[in-house]
């Protein structure tokens, strides 16, 4: 049996009881390591699970899934995924490939940022389409997420922005070489995301109506579900100066006027104070 | 400490290891029983947790939270919630009240339908605003969710429809009496939801452009995350005839043209076959 098991967002103990039972009895246990990361490392997971984990990078999951599937027809093989297994498209793909090879599979769900973002007090039913904000380079500065934020905000909906993660990315220089060299891992902060969002505003300045303003209320979160979780609510402009520390970070651009309960929650748990300047923008 | 702990969607073992540790050592453990239900009952949870559970109905959670908070300043009190604690607005409210009373709290996240719906193979990033479909009565037939589905579909986004749950609803006749009597619990099926959606189409027939058609591809799911989970993909009209058995059910109205991977997933795991009639409608 091939098991795709979500391990949640915080630390080793956020795996479900069902998930842990399977991990303990499985023949091999892989840890998918490129779509997200936990606040704790492989060592801590191994210690708590009492199992050795095999790191599965993008190459292994997307191109060499044969290695993972090996023996999954006669024994239990686990692929652990931070958050929920359906948080990333690549996991849909691996399930289809398992089915095509006649390998039975099971999924063990867990929390992911898509529902745990509720911890910031914004109602999950008031979120529109989720967007991803990628790291820009000098020559590649996509901003298709801007239009999605615009559409959400026209309807008064919040936008969850998932921030880029670069793990084991080959350096440009090494792409042509036999021996790959990798960039150090990078995780986009709410400050970096706010900076890119503000840069887009400058480019669109002549557009008339804009998706958001410098003063638009945003909520930044870091390490959701862990003991060091942080939530901050402020304008987009202020968010650029915010330091929420270690990864992972996510950013919410609010949809405009908040529900009174959302307002009360943010006022109770962050330094946010409702006032005319922020309200409804 | 007041703990709000998500227990996931399937059965007793879907609680996280951290959650179970807290449940085992807490002084009192409440089970919130009106915003959702598990496939297993209170008895099975009690047996697995090794703890007696106190059922917390709407009245207790929303009006008598004093009972729940009693002693939470000096000992550990748990409120268990099916899915994730932030799936329902009422839980935001109880956290604010805890904070106001100076009671420290912690949240333990888990899977909820909002992310576990990914099990149907539709990409979570292609969902728009989530809607709730309430049971209609002879005199109360709200359809505000129709406009939200319309807006989502204009943008090619899927809509997750959460289907109504009636647990411990007072009968109309008993509302004026001293002794409340309650309706038997009801859970809207995908068939009932499809029926209401089709009835709206009749009402809107003269509107010109419609949010969806009888032929629009829908995905019905039942008991997500449990061993008896079911997924079916068919037209809205066909969905009216579908019987997915016991609760809980949820319905997705697709946004139009599917991503090739979504198409492949549905073809692999349901009886759905991509054809011109369904595609892009």
Automatic annotation (TrEMBL), chains A, B:
Pfam families: TP_methylase (PF00590). It comes from the Eukaryota. Pathway: Protein modification; peptidyl-diphthamide biosynthesis. GO terms for molecular function: diphthine methyl ester synthase activity. Its EC number is 2.1.1.314. Residues 1-239 form the Tetrapyrrole methylase domain. Keywords: Methyltransferase, S-adenosyl-L-methionine, Transferase. One of its GO terms (biological process) is protein histidyl modification to diphthamide. S-adenosyl-L-methionine binds at residues 9, 84, 87, 112-113, 163, 224, 249. PANTHER family: DIPHTHINE METHYL ESTER SYNTHASE, DIPHTHINE SYNTHASE. Belongs to the diphthine synthase family. This is diphthine methyl ester synthase. It comes from Ladona fulva (Scarce chaser dragonfly). The lineage of its organism: Eukaryota, Metazoa, Ecdysozoa, Arthropoda, Hexapoda.
